[in-house]
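Worked problem 6 (solution included).
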Amino acid sequence: MAIALITIYILALSLIFIYSLGQLNLLFNYLEAQKKPAEDECFDFSRPGEVPLVTLQLPLYNELYVVERLLEAVEQLDYPREKLEIQVLDDSTDESVEITAALVSRIKGKGFHIEQIRRKDRKGFKAGALKEGLAIARGEFIAIFDADFIPQPDFLQKTVPYFKNQKIGVVQTRWGHTNRDYSVLTKSQAFALDAHFTIEQVGRNSKNHFINFNGTAGVWRKACINDAGNWQSDTLTEDLDLSYRSQLKGWQFKYLEDVETPAELPIVIGAARSQQFRWNKGGAENFRKMKTKLLLSKEVPFKTKIHGILHLLNSTMFLSIFVVAVLSIPMLYIKFYQPEFRLLFQASGIFVLSTLIFYIYYWFAYRKMHGTGFRIFMRYTRDFFTFFTIAMGLSLHNSVAVLEGHIGKKSAFVRTPKFNVGKLGENWRQNKYVQYNLSVVNWLEGLLMLYFVFGIYSAFRLMDYGLLPFHLMLAIGFGFVFYKSLTCRV
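Solution. The predicted structure is:
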């Protein structure tokens, strides 16, 4: 039994270490890319003949609190109205349908080509809505915005010109955060997303490795979508799926780090959990769907295959972290009572090294957003360990999502409730879309908090303090997630 547990423990540690090395390579790519000037051919919009027709797709489902803000932002887009088609893909089933209809009517009266498109059912969820809209879209290029995003007036001016290169299938922009500092939870989410939208996307894109369209705040070439097999709804992350199918077909993606599109982060743990579940399960589903095609492709370079596999296994790291966490307490006792295995526990140093790599990796993303200096670095250190603590607290929830994805268990597309915090203020509890039901996983998180409190006790009992900081973070992380889920507090 001891040998089996140690083997699983070391294997999980090794997977985390390999993933950290992949992230370190992306950091090197990112730093190298910062030194290279951009050299892209672009449309010259000063020539009317070079301004293409763009279709703007806005997929909606019960977006009572944010639809007005979204459509007001769309109304301000700096693009010729005769070259802009707006599709409001409205699958809503509540009173927001009438509100949206009134807004669409008002905007249409100002000379915009805008239509509210309704379906009889939500077949295919978001992917199905996008596919149905695409079938009647007149634009050569398709810009997509989720309801919680706020497109800036110059968005199309800054993105569409890159499509002069006929090989470009997608232009993706960086997400901004309107409520980054709202709470510890929003700060933690922004911390992770900032790293993805700086180092990961640039690090991959600069070396022509596969990147993903992030579901929103980007523009597709219509021909690329059709060539890759159109939108499909057999995974929960239809954006990642279509991204890989497109790049396997030879289409190139362009990522624009310097073009920011603001959005609102989920402010309650339930909303964040539903979003995390969809992203992590969808990542595992896409690994299951794409791994063979990627590895067997003769056109994809070996290093791009490696980064692609690590990218698709991104969410699976939560499962590795959870396994390491749960087994860490038995490891303490095996180490104490069976000293013949002590040499094997030197492998635990791999986790320390992996953490150090992540610490360096996230710093470069953090300083891009916040600047440099001693005080900022100290604040970064605090935010890094806060993020790590909350991420570990969500590891059980995310591991369930990953396992469901890998075994092929299907589930419905659960939307993330939007809040429009500035409008609701402290009355966010009035949001009719927030669910307060506790699940078995919530209660298990409470038990895991107690389990890692026992781990802290064990450190003093066995006088082995090497894992004490780890168990302290785990106890706080699971306690934080359990308390927020139990009380529905921000």
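Discussion: The chain is about 55% helix and 10% strand.
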